[in-house]
UniProtKB/TrEMBL annotation:
Biased composition (Basic and acidic residues): 15-26
Listed Polar residues bias regions: 1-14
Top-level taxon in the UniProt lineage: Eukaryota
Protein species of origin: Euplotes crassus
InterPro entries: Tmem135
Organism phylogeny: Eukaryota, Sar, Alveolata, Ciliophora, Intramacronucleata
Swiss-Prot/TrEMBL keywords: Membrane, Transmembrane, Transmembrane helix
Protein name: Uncharacterized protein
Amino acid sequence: MEKENASQQASSLKEISEKARRKSTESIEDIEDTIKKESQTLLKRILNSRTKQCKHKGGCIDNVVKGAVKSFMLGFATKYSINLLAGLMRPKTLLNALFSAKSILDSGRFILFVIIFNISYKIVLCTLRRIIKNEKFNSIVAGTVSASTLAMDTFNRRMMISLLFFSRSLETFYNWCGPSYKIYLGETIFFMVQCVFMKYLYAYEWELVPKSVAKIYKAYSLQKKNDLLIKEKIWRVMLDSKFKR
């Protein structure tokens, strides 16, 4: 009888311990489920959070991630299109222009610059919008920070991008002045002045032109060595003598 009572007590203790173990596992699973649900809702809130001044769709972080992906695709397509065009002008060097280690590193550097240039503007702008309510000040600071990423790129490309941005900034300033200060056919006159300036550089101040742009201009202008010698030895000398007078 004592043995039977002891076995019954042992079995009851096992059942009680088994039930306690099941309850503990169920409670742990419930806690894990609640933690997962809360973390997912918190992550959605963070991704979808945006300020009243933000005009983009979705949250700020979502906008930065989408901008990084778009910048990668744009930079990749742009750089390899340029390399492909440069290789088509010289078919012998096509594979070297697309798949050489130097070309891949240069393309990666350009793509990295485009990505950081884009996302740095978005990150700084959305961060400042949470602190400062002045949209003009926020845009100026974000543009300054993103423009500083030009230091990542090569010198020749920095010069070319700086020239493009400078001409674009002049056009923006002209449009910002308002209709009262605008001149009749002002955009056309402005474009003509730019063309004359660039043509003068190509003709007489060749050393100031970025090397990458100069190669493309030489290839498409179909100038021969005699043409370049005439520019260098005759026309440039005559122009310099006029300026000295």
